Hints:
six-stranded antiparallel sheet; 54% helix
Amino acid sequence: MLQSLHIENIAVVKSLDVDLDGGMTVLSGETGAGKSIIIDSLGLLLGSRADKELIRTGEERAVVSAVFADVGEQVRLALGEMGFECEDGTVMLTRTLTKSGSTAKLDGRAITVAMLRDIGGMLFNIHGQNDNQQLLDPKNHVKLLDSFASNGELLLAYSAVYHELLHARAELDCLCNDAMEQARLREMLKFQIADIDAVKLKDGEEEALLELVRKLQSLEKINKSVALVNKAIGGGEKSLGASYLTMRAAGALDAIADAVPEAEELARRLESIRYELDDIAESAAALCDLGDGDPTAKLDKAEARLNAISKLKRKYGSTVKEILEFRETAAKRLDMIENADDRKIELEEQIKDIEARAKAAADALTKSRRRAARELNGRVLETLAFLDMPKVRFEVGIKAESDFCAFGLDRVEFMISTNPGEPLLPMARIASGGELARIMLSLKNVLNECDGVGTVIFDEIDTGISGKTSRKVGIKLKEIGKGAQVLCVTHSAQIASLADNHLYISKAEHDGRVSTALTPLDREGRVREVARILGGIEITDAVRRAAEELISEGETY
């Protein structure tokens, strides 16, 4: 539900903050006090056009922000699919207007106006003289009918088969592409595979070649260093090496071991050092061993091999591993093309089977929808008759689609005829705002728990209707308020007296500027306001008593 609303610098509203409760909340006040501005501000959170003329004169920007609490599971899942977390069930929408445009945010994260429209539409609806909300959009009608019919399991069963069908059809379409294109692709794949195979790549080979090239390019330096190591450890014609000197030192210590026992341990350590030196000399000598053959020829061969690998990397991948993976994928695609005829026959048979299963699942949905449509028709017409619209015809239109779609084989649209003799037409084409608002009220009353929208706003739903009908409209609003939050802008005492909560809209002049304010009314305030609506210029005791009676009666519903 809408928990709090902040409006800043919208038209005559300087700054307005209001906390809202559940149930049915009425907004009333003198004509021109700013009720339409509040509705327009909420409309901005539904993605309506951000007219810069809405910005309060003299200000640079305007802001509308709303916090929604206890968001339903359907909305949480939908937000999750969009990448937004809603763990605590609270969502904040913000729309900021400037002279150059507008921005939108969800919980502080920037979103597009299109996303704002989708998210806002899941959280609340506005029904009024000029609003075109979710209940008017035909794409939502099948969802509403399915919710009313409790078709969740049937939809899941159909959806699984439908996605299987899409996958099979997509594969068949790929195989049935233009024959010349397939031939061109076959030759290209063959060339790519042969190009890679000609080099006979091995994973890890490039690293080994790079190491070999580095050794060969530094061979002279390596030989000099190894010779120096051998001379230092092994000695030469005119010098004694470290190995020999270490051996002599160990022998000298052995000679005194009888007299000095500690010398024996030192001798052993020197012998170990000598063995380690000999091993180092042997290992260093191996550094020069690059096998038989001319080193220059080996370097030329290794560089040529690296050049061949480099050419492949420019075409097929940044590493040898990626090139080999490219080759594997190309081989699979080539195999698919060369065996396309057999696969086509196999897929065509599969698609026939899947289509048969999809048809059975879609037929089950259609059967359930037609049964639910008859019940929905009756309940909406019953509500319309209660609202003094007995001659209005309502019908859930179900027409067959030419092919399978995401929701089966049905195109669902709510149809209305407001006058006898007139044909049924889509709801969006109804001209009368007053009639449309009551029709929306009837639908919302019946679909209260099905559409997943927690807050419903009715703007002057009492326009053009009598006191008796207004009372009935109020009763239905009160019923909806038991399962969803209802906000109603009204000039009707019959509706206002039924409110669970009543907000009074007023405007006052401060420092030469007019500002709008919202004031929660206690019971005495409600009596005064309902009496004002009833009484006109002068509020008599009789009018006050009538207002009290209306409020007291409203508390019994």
